[in-house]
Recover the amino acids of this structure.
């Protein structure tokens, strides 16, 4: 079976409700679902988070990061951290943990290297997207961060299933595989009940055309991806996408002086968030 057929088969499986995830990923998914429930209150949220040691550590670390710790008062307990961050940010962290655990699934060295690069790329995009949403496109920062975390979920899912198809990623993915990877990404996003607004933003990202001026959630993803120092692995040739041209367009659209000033002023914010997401 060639790669195009494998991608189509996986997308069809997921569309039929057969989403095969590692046990650790299912745990993180249940945490996210609990936090997103309208019946969840602060004490319940704290208990849910405390049940997962890795998530607990990340929640406290993020609450103490410069971007959230405006007062400079250090927090040491989960409940106070959840209260400072809010449920949406904590839910985003649960999603980060879910994607991170998918990135740790591959068995071969080559696949692990791809997964590590994809994770590094994703954390950079997420950190930049949150800042750009506030400073440039004036979108919801938490929605931007969530969209950035899941925008390549199809690639992570593919890597988590790669052991079933030995050698599939030996040469990466080419343009002929693009349609299949995007179909897989759409299927996984739908299976995870990602909000429609985020789905639409990711479709804009996949199309690869940046609006002038950049104003939408999709534009935020494109800006963040173009500015990240990590090249996007797996599928880099999205429709209309050319990285050098994209970066030049950002200079033209935002204005080099203004953009550089924004990046300089926000460096601590981005770096502190990036440090929390790297685990």
């Amino acid at each position: 079976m060639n790669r195009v057929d494998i991608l189509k088969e996986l997308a069809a499986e997921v569309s039929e409700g057969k989403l095969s995830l590692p046990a650790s990923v299912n745990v993180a998914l249940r945490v996210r679902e609990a936090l997103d429930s309208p019946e969840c209150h602060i004490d319940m949220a704290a208990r849910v988070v405390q049940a997962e040691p890795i998530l607990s550590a990340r929640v406290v670390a993020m609450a103490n990061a410069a971007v959230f710790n405006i007062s400079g008062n250090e927090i040491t307990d989960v409940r106070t951290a959840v209260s400072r961050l809010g449920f949406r940010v904590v839910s985003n962290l649960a999603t980060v943990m879910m994607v991170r655990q998918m990135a740790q699934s591959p068995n071969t060295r080559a696949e692990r290297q791809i997964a590590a690069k994809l994770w590094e790329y994703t954390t950079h995009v997420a950190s930049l997207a949150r800042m750009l949403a506030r400073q440039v496109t004036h979108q919801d920062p938490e929605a931007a961060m969530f969209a950035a975390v899941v925008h390549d979920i199809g690639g992570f899912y593919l890597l988590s299933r790669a052991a079933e198809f030995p050698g599939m990623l030996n040469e990466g993915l080419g343009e002929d595989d693009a349609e299949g990877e995007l179909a897989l990404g759409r299927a996984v996003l739908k299976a995870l009940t990602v909000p429609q607004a985020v789905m639409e933003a990711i479709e804009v990202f996949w199309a690869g055309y940046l609006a002038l001026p950049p104003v939408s959630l999709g534009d935020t993803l494109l800006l963040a991806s173009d500015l990240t120092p990590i090249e996007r692995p797996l599928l880099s040739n999205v429709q209309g996408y050319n990285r050098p041209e994209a970066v030049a367009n950002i200079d033209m659209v935002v204005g080099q002086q203004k953009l550089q000033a924004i990046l300089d002023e926000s460096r601590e914010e981005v770096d502190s968030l990036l440090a929390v997401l790297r685990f």
